[in-house]
Structure formats: C-alpha cells, structure tokens
Amino acid sequence: MAYMLVFDSKFTEKLSLHSKFIYQPWEDYSYTNFTNDSFESRSTLTDLFLNYEMKEDKILFFGYNRALSKRKEYDSDNILEDEEEDTNNIYYLGLEIRGSFSGGKE
C-alpha cells in the first residue's frame, strides 16, 4: 500500500508550484516457497516543480525529485543480515517554448 499527497498552488498569474509526496511504509516480503530469507522495504518519492511563465508560450521551470528507498534483509532465524539505503536526487532547470515546434500556430 502507498500513500500520496499532491499539492498545486498558483501564487501569482505567472508563478505556480506543483508538488507530490508518495510514501510506501515498511512492507514485509517473504518467499517461503523458494528460500527461508525475507526482507522489508519502504520508499518515498518527493517531487517539487516551480513554474514561472515569462511570456504566453515560454515557461521557465525549476524542479527537484528525490527518491529514497530502504531495505532490510533477514535470515531464516529472523536476524537482520543486511540493511541498505539508496537516495537519488535530481534537480531540473528548463525552458519550455510551446510555439517553437508548431511554427507558432498553437
């Protein structure tokens, strides 16, 4: 099961924020048919995008994306064997020009 929280807001006519947070709590995975080992994992995803409309067809955006995952692996006696944490941070800076590919006929 995962939980999602989304928030969009427009601060001015030209400035808006789009954000999303997804949380998947600790979940136990056991594969008793194949092995006695089991593991738990959880993850979060955070997205933030700030858009600034410079002109009618030109938007400058800044963004941040963070994915975090944690995993705990247990042996057959339910003793913690391994614990991993992975974090991936991505930063965005871009310019969207809508009329540039359509010849301005959008």
**Cα-atom Rg, whole angstroms?**
21 Å
If strands are numbered along the chain, what order do they take across the biggest sheet? 1-2-3-4-5
Order of helices and strands: EEEEE
Determine the N-to-C terminus distance.
41 Å
Unreliable stretches (pLDDT < 50, length at least 5) are none
Basic shape: elongated
How large is the count of helical segments? 0
* Mean pLDDT over the full residue set: 83
Task: Give the DSSP E fraction (strand runs of 2 or more residues).
Answer: over 45%
What is the domain tally? 1
What's the count of strands? Answer: 5
Helix content: under 10%
Largest sheet: 5 strands, antiparallel
Structural class: mainly beta
Describe the structure.
Helices cover 0% and strands 73% of the residues. The protein is an all-beta fold. It has one domain (3-100). A 5-stranded antiparallel beta sheet has the order 1-2-3-4-5, with no helix packed on it. It is elongated and about 65 Å long. The chain starts with a strand and ends in a 9-residue tail after the last strand. The model has no long low-confidence stretch (mean pLDDT 83).
